[in-house]
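Sync notes, pocket subgroup
Present: LS, DG
LS reminded everyone that the earlier model was apo-only. Rerun requested with adenosine-5-diphosphoribose included. Inputs:
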Amino acid sequence: MTMRAALYRGVPRMEVEDLPVPSPSAGEVLVKVAGCGICHTDLHYLDHGVPTFKKPPLVLGHEISGTVESWGEEVSDWEEGDRVLLPAVTSCGTCSYCASGRSNICARMKMFGNDVDGGYAEYVVAPAREIYPLPDSIPLIEGSVIADAVSTPWHAVNNRAKIQKGEEVVVYGVGGVGINVVQCAVAAGARVTAVDIDASKLEKAKELGATETICAPQGESAHKEVKRITGGGAHCAIEAIGRADTIQSAFSSVRRGGRLVVLGYTHEKVPLPMGKLMYHEMSVVGTLGCGGGDYPEIIRAVAEGELALGPIVSGQIPLEKINEGFDLLRAGEGLRWVVIP
Ligand code: APR
Ligand code: ZN
């Protein structure tokens, strides 16, 4: 049997081709893909020379929802047609990180569309013990973006920033990732200020619960405005852009005893004032993805309306037009596009 799949061959434009449908090994299920979210991470491979772990040709895509089609040996808990969400990254379940509840930094983690073939295809195989049921109340195609676009911010807000009710939180960058940091922080009971250079993104942040917005050309002096708005600085700043200057501004926007959570990726070295860190007992922490164990709780929060998918999904792109979908991302249009095979 063959399937349609977008193949990444190491160049910016993918080719939609016929490939053999993969067959699930022991402990694996074959999932018929319903939707796969288009993420910025893929642009790092396509446009910026970041290598994938599996050498091209490779099927990209790591925000996958679908239905169970078939399974290999030793799989008993799934039935044909079950609606499922695949985590962006799967873990080994046995290393010291997995054993201590930090499977998101598993020593042997595998990412869809990076280490193994991903979801820009009609079918994908996944480990049976690490896929999660999606209730009927969550639309199957839109639900795909829970993996990564929602789960990464959820982990950042709840496990790393540990946002408490009533705290002042500032989010730097409210694009595809940051907008969901806003949602998750609001759901956690924070009062949220959003910083961006794009007024339309800030409008969306307001729609999703941000109380204040700061339109900051190149992020300069945004921290002074944050200090004014929050009466002395935020309890926590979360940077979701990945720029040296905005990471520094985010650090400056935090009050005594506060914390900076770095979610945006940069390969640059970013100087921060260690004297202030020491003297004001500040913390700087990183955050990466989200462990599979948190998915049931995130799915529940979406199902019960604590987190919204509608406003963050901009539209659907047929698999055959996947390159046009990526052009939309390159142009900064919309928040999250979903490829449907
Ligand atoms: N100051 C303020 N906001 C900025 C600035 C700046 N100097 N530069 C860009 N932004 C805003 C953009 O306007 C946009 O709204 O940051 C947002 C970035 O959002 P996206 O481009 O949608 O990127 P996203 O997918 O959210 O990823 C952000 O998180 O996971 C990482 O690798 C990812 O580093 C990237 C970051
Ligand atoms: Zn592990």
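DG: The mean pLDDT is 96.
LS: The longest helix spans residues 151-160.
Action: DG to write up.
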